[in-house]
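Posting this for the archive.
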Amino acid sequence: MSQAVRPELPPVHMRRDGFDPTPQLREIRETEGVRVITSAFGMSAYLVTRHEDVKTVLSDHTRFSNTRPPGFVVPGAPPIDEDEQARSRAGNLLGLDPPEHQRLRRMLTPEFTLRRMRRLQPRIAEIVDAQLDALAAARDGEASADLVQHFALPIPSLVICELLGVPYADRDDFQRRSARQLDLSIPIPERIELAREGRAYMGSLVAGARTNPGDDILGMLVREHGAELTDDELVGIAGLLLLAGHETTSNMLALGTLALLRHPEQLAAVREDPDAVAPAVEELLRWLSIVHTAIPRITTTDVEIAGVSIPAGQLVFASLPSGNRDDEFIERPEVFDITRGAMGHLAFGHGVHHCLGAPLARMEMQIAFPALLRRFPTLAPAGEFDDVPFRSFHFIYGLKSLEVTW
C-alpha cells in the first residue's frame, strides 16, 4: 500500500454542492470510471464511480475484502496493541467477510424482516407523533425550531434504543460519541478514545443482558446465541446497530425534508397521496446518497475494473452517490423525481453487506415524512438555503441543524 501524502480536504469522494455530488465525480465517471485519489487520511485509493462497477466491488467479497490485513495502519493513528485491535474488530459486521460475516448476520436477520417491521409500525407512529408534539413545543414563542434536534434525530434514536435495549436516557452521550466518531475533522486519537468509551458503555449493557436478558435484540442474542457469542462480539454487534440505527436515518429525515421543501409539488404529493410515499423515499435515498462510499475494500488479488488494473493489496472506494447518479443506471439522474421508481439504487449498499436495517429505515421515513408535512402544512426553512449548515467533512452527509417555521 502506498505511502501517505497530504490530502486535499475534503477528498473528492466526499465533496458536495448542496444536494449534489461534486461535478468532479461525474467527470471521473464519464471518462476513466476509476481514478486513483488521496483519501482523507492521506492514503491512495482507487475510486470506483460507475453503477455496475460499484455493484461489482460490493458484491465480490473474494476479490474485494472488507477485512483489514495484518499490519494495516491508518496514518496518524496512535499504536494500538493486537489484543485491543482484535476486540475492536469483534462483532463488527462491516469489517468481516463470509463466512464469519454470515454467521453473525444470520443471528440478526429475523429481527429486521418486513413482517417484524410491520409489527413495529404502530409504535414507530407513536414515536413520530410524540416528536411532532415536541417540535411544536420547541417552536412555541420562538421564531423557529430545529428540525434536527426535535424531530430527525430523536425518532431513529428512540426506535433503535427500544429495539436494541439501550436506555434512551443515555442518548446525549451516545449521540455525541457517534457524531464525533464519524467526523473526520476530529483528530484520530480522539476518535479512537471515543470508540473506547463506546465499547466500555456497551460492555456494561452486555453484562446486564447476560444476567437479565430483556425482550430486545441484545436480550435475544444472549438467550438464543449467548453460548456462541463472546462479550466482545456482542459489544461489536450492538455498538454497530446503535450507531448505524440513528446516524443514517436521522440525516435522511433532515436532508430529505429540506429536499422536499425545495420541490413543493412533490412535497404536496407526499403529504396528500399515500401511494406516493414509498417511491418518494426510494428517490430520496438515491438522489441524496448520504453515505459517501461503502466501507473501503482491499483487493485480495490483481483485478481490473473499467479497464483500470488494480494490484493486490490496494484500497478501493465505491462511490455510492456517483453510482446512483450514473445515467447508465437511470435517466436524468441529476433530477429529483419521486415518480420515476428508483429501486435498484445503491444507497443501502449491495451484496452480502447490504444494509441489515434497510426495512427499518424505510418504515421510519415512510411514517415520518407524511406525518410531518400533514401536521405542519406550511412548513418552511426559517432562513435562506445558502445558510443551511451542511456537514462538510463527515462519513455521513447531512445537516448540522435545520431551523424551520410554519
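The chain has a mean pLDDT of 94. The domain at 12-405 is CATH 1.10.630.10 (Cytochrome p450).
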